[in-house]
Amino acid sequence: MHRSRNPEQFSRPLPQGGIVSLVLLWALCARAGAADFATAPKDTETPIHHLVIIFQENVSFDHYFATYPIAANPPGEPRFIPRPGTPSINGLTEGLLTHNPNSAAPFRLGRSQAATCDQEHAYAAEQRAFDAGLMDRFVESTGSSAPGCDPKEVMGYFDGNTVTALWNYAQHFAMSDNFYETTFGPSTLGALNLVSGQTHGATPPDLPGGVTGGTVMGDVQPSLDDCSKPGGIVMDGMNIGVLLNQKGITWGWFQGGFRPSGRTDSGQAICDASHPGSNGPKKRDYLPHHEPFQYYRSTANPHHLPPASAAAVGKSDSAHHQYDLDDFWNAVSANNLPAVSFLKAPAYQDGHAGYSDPLAEQRFVVETVNRLQKLSPWKEMAILITYDDSDGWYDHALGPIMNASSLPAYDLLSGPGRCGVPSPESYPGRCGYGPRLPLILISPFAKVNFVDHSVTDQTSILRFIEDNWRVGEIGDQSFDQKSGKIDHLFDFASTSHPGPLFLDPRTGQPLDGPERR
Q1: Which of 89, 148, 228, 432 has the fewest CB atoms within 10 Å around its CB?
Q2: How many domains does the chain have?
């Protein structure tokens, strides 16, 4: 890869787990009747010619992987038995489980407790919870105090009896235990960082609770979207979509509910499609502040116009590469899988606490991955599953300060008004890295039952796209200049590859039996 980056990265020592040496014979995964896809262009840095990013909502690493690979296995819940030699992770030790520095101890949530309260996950609140690296103020700072909620719930975690599919994917493929949200803060910041590594450049430059000094710090709406609430913003600068367009690489952002449920007399889109959430009330499928490309004039599709045809998906037309999830599968059926695809579940399946839960999320993820593994392009595909932010859920790991900031009343990580010592020319309000998040790689080129301990963040995905398709870099203080590589998750040298893993969307267990691995 042709770039020089030498960030000063540091983190706490992580446990070095043994890596199982398991070689699985490569098996053709295209079933009878599967589409005969055109050969992908061989113009990539690696054998990956199709990247699919499943971008979910609001989960810290410990919230889903605190005790991996050990599950409680109570009666009535799907069992999880780890493979022998599964590597250790930087999870919750016995000491952290029984003598935690927080005012409440971490505790296991079972399947019957899947629907939880939404926790506090603001930029300043999360820094306050980290308490200069002591990681001991989560109950007071990010625990939900909404009616009917207990702030101590923020210490809850699920195990392999509830997030069973993700644990099984980690066993069969590869995962990271040292992957971070690029900055502190809620969904919009994570989404913007994923596609640009940049939360600075907003107009207007100041909005109460949302934008300070031109930097996005809260869940503000994109003005360039008919389905947004008033009072939104527009982002300046580059994003990965523009870089891909300049090189003629097909791509798209596909989000549940993006297709309008109707239109006004003037032609504006109406986005009222909804489903009952895990907490009961209906939730709109499409949430504009989860769609990062709608913030940029260069990539926005304000009126949610459809693509000209399934064959046009991924190419530049009136849809501007912004689509409904159905457009993705229509393109797949037309033998037109884009090179880079971002998939966003409808809200009720995105895993966001308060209106979704791990079981609803599991159904979406498993059904999606099962379908992708049946395609001919699977042999050249990488699927990444990750999240936009932590929701404020407890995680015990402190990441490195890769970007300093000193905004009074907002930056609190290393003291009042402080997150390290920023340089005079740096943009404000981008303290990071933020909380630790899950990252799973599913691919024929994934290392098997492997845990990567190297430091990476959301913009490491951005960097992989930049490098693999040779499209250049974002620039303008984008975090892509500081990101570590996710390459450690891959094994491009081996001649043997892990085959597909088909799971039950309801239980998360292998379809050929829960004990067979």
Answers
A1: 148
A2: 1
Residue 175, C-beta contacts closer than 8 angstroms, at least 6 positions apart:
65, 169, 438, 439, 440, 441, 450, 451, 452, 489
Residue 72 located in a structural domain: yes
Identify which of 351, 357, 437 has the alpha carbon closest to the alpha carbon of residue 126.
437
φ, ψ of residue 353 to 5 degrees: the values are -55, 145
Answer whether residue 274 shows pLDDT above 60.
yes
Run of H or E residues at 64: helix 61-65
User: CA torsion angle for 272, 273, 278, 279 (degrees, to 10)?
Assistant: 20
User: Is residue 19 pLDDT above 70, yes or no?
Assistant: no
Tokens of 186: 């809620």
**Section 155-174 average pLDDT:** 98
Please report whether residue 357 resides in a domain.
yes
CA dist., res. 408 & res. 225, Å (int): 32
In a domain, 346, yes or no: yes
Instruction: Give the number of other Cβ atoms within 10 Å of residue 48's Cβ.
Output: 21
pLDDT in tens, 112-129: 999 999 999 999 999 999
- Map tokens 């829960």 to a residue: 514
Average pLDDT, the chain: 92
CA distance 385 to 316: 26
d(CA 241, CA 96) in angstroms, rounded, equals 42
> What is the rounded CA–CA span in Å between residue 482 and residue 11?
14
Q: What is the pLDDT of residue 14?
A: 38
pLDDT in tens, 310-369: 999 999 999 999 999 999 999 999 999 999 999 999 999 999 999 999 999 999 999 999
In terms of residue numbers, what domain contains 377?
A: 50-489
**Do residues 105 and 97 lie in contact, with contact meaning Cβ atoms separated by under 8 Å?**
yes
Beta-strand ranges (E) seen in 65-150 are 107-108
In a domain, 79, yes or no: yes
Sequence letter at residue 242: V
